[in-house]
Amino acid sequence: MKISELSRRTGVPVASIKYFRREGLLPAGRATAATLAEYGEEHVQRLRLIKALTTLGGLSIAATRDVLATVDQAENTDKTLEAISYALPVPVTAASAGDADRDAAAESAAAADVMDLIAAMDWQVPGTSPHVRGLTTALRELRRLDADYRPERLVAYAELAHSIARLDLERAAAFDDSPALAEQAVIVLALSGPMLELLRRLAQEDQVRRRGADHPDAE
Amino acid sequence: MKISELSRRTGVPVASIKYFRREGLLPAGRATAATLAEYGEEHVQRLRLIKALTTLGGLSIAATRDVLATVDQAENTDKTLEAISYALPVPVTAASAGDADRDAAAESAAAADVMDLIAAMDWQVPGTSPHVRGLTTALRELRRLDADYRPERLVAYAELAHSIARLDLERAAAFDDSPALAEQAVIVLALSGPMLELLRRLAQEDQVRRRGADHPDAE
DNA sequence: CAGGGAAGATACTGCCACTATCCAGTAGCT
DNA sequence: AGCTACTGGATAGTGGCAGTATCTTCCCTG
Description:
The structure is a homodimer.
Chain A: H1 3-10, H2 14-22, E1 30-33, E2 36-38, H3 41-56, H4 61-72, H5 77-87, H6 104-121, H7 130-144, H8 151-173, H9 181-214
Antiparallel strand pairs in A: 1-2
The structure holds a DNA duplex.
Domain HTH merR-type (chains A, B): 1-70
Pfam families (chains A, B): MerR_1
Keywords (chains A, B): DNA-binding, Repressor, Transcription, Transcription regulation
């Protein structure tokens, strides 16, 4: 199909399709002449995946490119899962120093909390993992706010996070070694977070409403 | 204290403090003269909260303003919790039509799945809730991708989301009617998501590494 | 063989979150 | 009183991101 039909089929403007090609998110069509190329179903599917990762997953164009690159280089299941896990952007990144040095105490206290948590959960992750650094940064900020995020609290959340990760991995590995593995794994690993967030917000809304209904005092 | 000291104490540039004031995120200092104002500890705390909501919570300046406005209007516990729940931005918002109409079937199928889920979980939320709409949009996109998000799958995630929401609400309500309630509730409700996401990613990393270690075949 | 797409390159736009500059008007020291 | 560093407020500018538009060249189709 021609680019105009690809655009019509996916609802993505032609200019945007060209943009995604430029940015390396979408492979070029099969050129049939200097100014003509043929696109196939794989382009339709890829565009849907791009839309899902950016609008649902909230990934930037650059992050989406990185993630899709790992999809295209998929070898075996384990390597693919690991590559995707590291290609996904970390939600919290350390600040640009500046005031980081001022609070070395909070920093190391937060780092200790993270280490305790990882030990308590028996998680096997290197101390250099970007996720560890992100969590440390987050705990440092929360400490500054006097928020109640002591390790005991965290463990309860960590247990639940562990259960969710197990569900995710079960699903991602269910496509074991099939050609569609990498793509489905990306969908599971990248979109599980936003889906869960939506469910959590919904559950939160339910609980808040029940509280309000239980004792409708003032007002 | 003067604005320069407020800046030094929080690590936020003076220009940014002025920006937050303009945008209504930070109340003005107590003016002591036409060109001089005095700031207090509440300004320090508010700036920390702004930083936490934007950098950790990922909220935009506009969303942060809305959330902080509900904090400042806090009356009683239940109302405050409800107000915050609705002031927080919904992660997934419906697209701008366009290709929405093309897929009315997927749309209604997704809506039916969401209704089934809410019924199965016995959640009390109005069908007009932004979270319901967001979830519907997300499921529609996932259906297009042929992703495995059938209701049975979703229920497992929903149960976990429910547990998390219960933990959140317990914490948010623990500050019951104290003056700090609203602020702590915001921290819990707005930052629980990012914290959980970080923990989930960490747990995911652990699981991926264990898989890789269990059977280190090719390489 | 004329006209409408198509491809690729380049330039432009709109939004966001700051950041910098400018303009008085003090505060506080001498 | 005079000087200077700093302040609040207004306004303008910056850089990054995600597209969107334009322009040129080319060539398939009717």
